[in-house]
């Protein structure tokens, strides 16, 4: 089933800034999609349109069979969980436990259901030991996991994460990879905005590249990262092994260490 359909979407902010133009997008159930592109390309605006935080000024956004124009953000958040770019824009409780329980409580679940979902989300995000802490006493990277847990506890079909890797160390990155795999196993649809191309190579197959309010490419990682024009227009640093392969004069698509080794072995024969 189609989870997200954006048809000829335009969006202008009240000050007249045009953030999105003629934007079309279709995402199926269970897909895992990375959105990449230069700063100000319109990525955050595109995902805010998905959960109704903003409504299109032209065109339509459908979440499953709901047109977002007909629903409030609160109602849409039952289907689309949105993890904000900055955790401080999302967190408003003084205890991790109550922050995570807020969404499930609002959904009207009983205490047992709330507890089960809070426990599940805390385990999955690796924060079960800090449930009684004040989120504002925690480092930025941990606050980000609190916001991810708050969204996962509501068990939405679609999860949107805005820059989950920002500020994460190797352990944090591994945890995010683990969360993505678990969500995929559960058949969830995941859209992630990121500037981290190594993260994209490791965890995504489909990539949407954006520049100046437009979608400039939608395809698999090989086709996007091997297209010099797309990379230049989206002003992104190519993945490390792609750059290294280029410097070494290796022909063909290389994104990982294993692929580079394969090419070098073939060339040395
Ligand atoms: N509240 C706002 N009012 C006016 N213009 C805005 C507002 N929020 C974003 N913009 C502008 O809309 C455009 C798209 O911004 P958006 O945040 O969607 O881009 P982005 O690709 O997510 O950028 P980044 O990678 O820096 O987060 C930019 O020109 C930005 O300056």
UniProtKB/TrEMBL annotation:
Keyword Nucleotidyltransferase: no
Keyword set, alphabetical order: ATP-binding, Cell membrane, Membrane, Nucleotide-binding, Translocase, Transport
Membrane-spanning residues: none
InterPro entries assigned: AAA+_ATPase, ABC_transporter-like_ATP-bd, ABC_transpr_CbiO/EcfA_su, ECF_ABC_transporter_ATP-bd, P-loop_NTPase
Coiled coil: none
Topology class, membrane: Peripheral membrane protein
Short name of any one Pfam family annotated for the protein: ABC_tran
SUPFAM superfamilies xrefs: P-loop containing nucleoside triphosphate hydrolases
Subcellular location: Cell membrane
GO CC terms: ATP-binding cassette (ABC) transporter complex
The ABC transporter domain, residue ranges: 4-237
Main location: membrane
Protein origin, superkingdom: Bacteria
GO MF annotation: an example: cobalt ion transmembrane transporter activity
Similarity field: Belongs to the ABC transporter superfamily.
The protein, known as: ABC transporter ATP-binding protein
């Amino acid at each position: 089933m189609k989870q997200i359909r954006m048809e000829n979407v335009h969006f202008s902010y009240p000050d007249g800034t045009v953030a999105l133009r003629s934007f079309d997008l279709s995402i199926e159930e269970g897909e895992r999609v990375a959105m990449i592109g230069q700063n100000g390309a319109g990525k955050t605006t595109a995902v805010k349109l998905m959960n109704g935080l903003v409504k299109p000024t032209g065109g339509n956004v459908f979440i499953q069979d709901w047109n977002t124009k007909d629903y409030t953000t609160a109602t849409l958040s039952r289907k689309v969980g949105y993890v904000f770019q900055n955790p401080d824009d999302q967190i408003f409780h003084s205890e991790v436990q109550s922050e995570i329980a807020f969404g499930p409580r609002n959904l009207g679940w009983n205490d047992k259901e709330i507890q089960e979902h809070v426990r599940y989300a805390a385990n999955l995000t690796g924060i079960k030991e800090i449930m009684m802490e004040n989120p504002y006493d925690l480092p930025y990277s941990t606050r980000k996991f609190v916001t991810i847990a708050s969204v996962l506890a509501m068990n939405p079909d679609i999860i949107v994460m805005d820059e989950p890797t920002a500020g994460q160390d190797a352990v944090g990155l591994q945890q995010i990879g683990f969360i993505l795999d678990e969500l995929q196993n559960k058949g969830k649809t995941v859209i992630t905005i990121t500037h981290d191309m190594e993260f994209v190579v490791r965890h995504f197959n489909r990539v949407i590249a954006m520049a100046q309010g437009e979608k400039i490419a939608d395809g698999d990682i090989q086709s996007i990262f091997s297209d010099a024009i797309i990379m230049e227009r989206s002003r992104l640093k190519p993945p490390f092994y792609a750059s290294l392969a280029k410097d070494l004069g290796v022909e063909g698509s290389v994104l990982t260490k294993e692929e580079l080794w394969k090419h070098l072995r073939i060339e040395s024969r």
